[in-house]
Amino acid sequence: MTQLPQSTDRKMGLVIDLDTCVGCHACVISCKGWNTENYGAPLSDQDAYGSDPSGTFLNRVHSFEVQPEQGHAQLIHFPKSCLHCEDAPCVTVCPTGASYKRVEDGIVLVNESDCIGCGLCAWSCPYGARELDATEGVMKKCTLCVDRIYNENLEEVDRVPSCVRTCPAGARHFGDLGDPNSDVSKLVEERGGMDLMPEQGTKPVNKYLPPRPKDTIEEQIDILAPLLAPVAEEPQGFMGWLDKALDKLPGGNA
Amino acid sequence: MHPAPSVIVFTTLSGLGFGLLMFLGLGFPAVTGWVAFVFFAIAYALAVGGLMASTFHLGHPERAMKAFTQWRSSWLSREGWCAVIALLVMAPYGAGLVFLGETYTALGLIGALFSLLTVFTTSMIYTQLKTIPRWNMKLTPAMFLSFSIAGGALLAGQVNAAMILLAIAALVQLAYWKQGDEAFANSGTDMGTATGLGSRGTVRAFEPPHTGTNYLLREFVHVVGRKHAAKLRVISFVLAFVLPILILLISPHHFGALIAVLSHLAGIATSRWLFFAQAEHVVGLYYGKR
């Protein structure tokens, strides 16, 4: 059914920390790796080793430069995948009912056997979260790794989306954003988590944590100077006793 | 937006075909027998041909029947229903005129209504998309409907009505272009809101996610050909409206009318190409493109 549910029991989603993301693209690769061989049709590549490669990805990392009115420009790495919106326009435009939002956890999924590949859902998504696979002719999108998060064949630590499990910087968090007491909700509260394109009225579940304010560099010629000072001037403990003992030996004290 | 030939052919031909069907349903011209057969054959060829063309861009056209299921929420599904109802209702109405010389007025009126609704639902597929500000305007359905009705009048040989309706469509076209050119800026969406970083300073796309292209860029960020947009607008406006009106004024006969129809068709197709090629999807902002 392509009508949206009135409400969902939970709002599972991601919180992405723009302060911590180092732009390594590990989440992109792990996403492609997991999702090309699990839920639904594989994520195909075209001309993968040729001069004009392209392919289907469910998660991509952009990099933006922000130039404040005063001070230095800041580089911000920006991972982007489906935001599992509460008012998901991609669901209601679907003519076949292939695109749907789950009542139990709010995950937006595509039933690939019903997808006619008209592309209208991708047109309606402001975030570019949906890509029509060129080989399979069906719409692909982030499933929030629905085949991992409830998968009891996996170790508990692995029951999170592949991108979250992989992120070496800890910039990606997974949880129930409908529960105000969940870790992710607290994180969003604490760090002022934000929506992308709120004016589009999609009410995204995924939140982005803005970069923290940066330290200002004070008037100091060499910022490494404090680190170059001697660490321990007087030996302590056993080394101190040894130092003194050796000093007492004849011909010792230099 | 990528101007896919299948969608341009579909919206242009079926718009004209359903416009003609609407006039036939209302009894203009009041024809029977072979003349009616020719009119209905042209209308069905345009409408059905357009609908067939629209399936060419589907990834899985064999599943197209599933598109009838979601009429409660989806304009694309509603369009399918309206088109099928219009074509099914107009068939016995046309058969009555062609073979029996009978006019089933009620059927004609229902068919005319659904022909118009088909064009309206087609336009709403584009109008509903907030992601494409140039389409997300009340003038979009006004444009589709005025083009279809004017084209229908022209094909139906309603010379006086056609001249007035073409003039109205021309004005709608001008208004659409004017409002459309400001739509993106007025939508409130920019790189600042797209990234949520706008309050911190000027946002610039520094590195794209990949060195090559992808589906999103191919489908939504079509910048090639936009540089000729101004010239194409003039060409399309002259072909679609100015020339047909002049021809109808000077020589409203069969040959003149044929030239007027062909000119109108070429002009509308050009306008429709611009409708897609000039439409900017907000996702382009993430790539620093429009």
UniProtKB/TrEMBL annotation, chain A:
<keyword id="KW-0004">4Fe-4S</keyword>
<dbReference type="InterPro" id="IPR017896">
    <property type="entry name" value="4Fe4S_Fe-S-bd"/>
</dbReference>
<protein>
    <submittedName>
        <fullName>Tetrathionate reductase subunit B</fullName>
    </submittedName>
</protein>
<feature type="domain" description="4Fe-4S ferredoxin-type">
    <location>
        <begin position="73"/>
        <end position="105"/>
    </location>
</feature>
<dbReference type="GO" id="GO:0051539">
    <property type="term" value="F:4 iron, 4 sulfur cluster binding"/>
</dbReference>
<feature type="domain" description="4Fe-4S ferredoxin-type">
    <location>
        <begin position="106"/>
        <end position="135"/>
    </location>
</feature>
<dbReference type="InterPro" id="IPR017900">
    <property type="entry name" value="4Fe4S_Fe_S_CS"/>
</dbReference>
<dbReference type="Pfam" id="PF13247">
    <property type="entry name" value="Fer4_11"/>
</dbReference>
<keyword id="KW-0411">Iron-sulfur</keyword>
<dbReference type="GO" id="GO:0046872">
    <property type="term" value="F:metal ion binding"/>
</dbReference>
<keyword id="KW-0479">Metal-binding</keyword>
<dbReference type="InterPro" id="IPR050954">
    <property type="entry name" value="ET_IronSulfur_Cluster-Binding"/>
</dbReference>
<feature type="domain" description="4Fe-4S ferredoxin-type">
    <location>
        <begin position="12"/>
        <end position="42"/>
    </location>
</feature>
<keyword id="KW-0408">Iron</keyword>
TrEMBL record, chain B:
<feature type="transmembrane region" description="Helical">
    <location>
        <begin position="80"/>
        <end position="100"/>
    </location>
</feature>
<protein>
    <recommendedName>
        <fullName>DMSO reductase anchor subunit (DmsC)</fullName>
    </recommendedName>
</protein>
<dbReference type="Pfam" id="PF04976">
    <property type="entry name" value="DmsC"/>
</dbReference>
<keyword id="KW-0472">Membrane</keyword>
<dbReference type="GO" id="GO:0019645">
    <property type="term" value="P:anaerobic electron transport chain"/>
</dbReference>
<feature type="transmembrane region" description="Helical">
    <location>
        <begin position="256"/>
        <end position="275"/>
    </location>
</feature>
<dbReference type="GO" id="GO:0009389">
    <property type="term" value="F:dimethyl sulfoxide reductase activity"/>
</dbReference>
<feature type="transmembrane region" description="Helical">
    <location>
        <begin position="7"/>
        <end position="28"/>
    </location>
</feature>
<keyword id="KW-1133">Transmembrane helix</keyword>
<keyword id="KW-0812">Transmembrane</keyword>
<dbReference type="InterPro" id="IPR007059">
    <property type="entry name" value="DmsC"/>
</dbReference>
<feature type="transmembrane region" description="Helical">
    <location>
        <begin position="106"/>
        <end position="127"/>
    </location>
</feature>
<dbReference type="GO" id="GO:0009390">
    <property type="term" value="C:dimethyl sulfoxide reductase complex"/>
</dbReference>
<feature type="transmembrane region" description="Helical">
    <location>
        <begin position="232"/>
        <end position="250"/>
    </location>
</feature>
<dbReference type="GO" id="GO:0005886">
    <property type="term" value="C:plasma membrane"/>
</dbReference>
<feature type="transmembrane region" description="Helical">
    <location>
        <begin position="34"/>
        <end position="59"/>
    </location>
</feature>
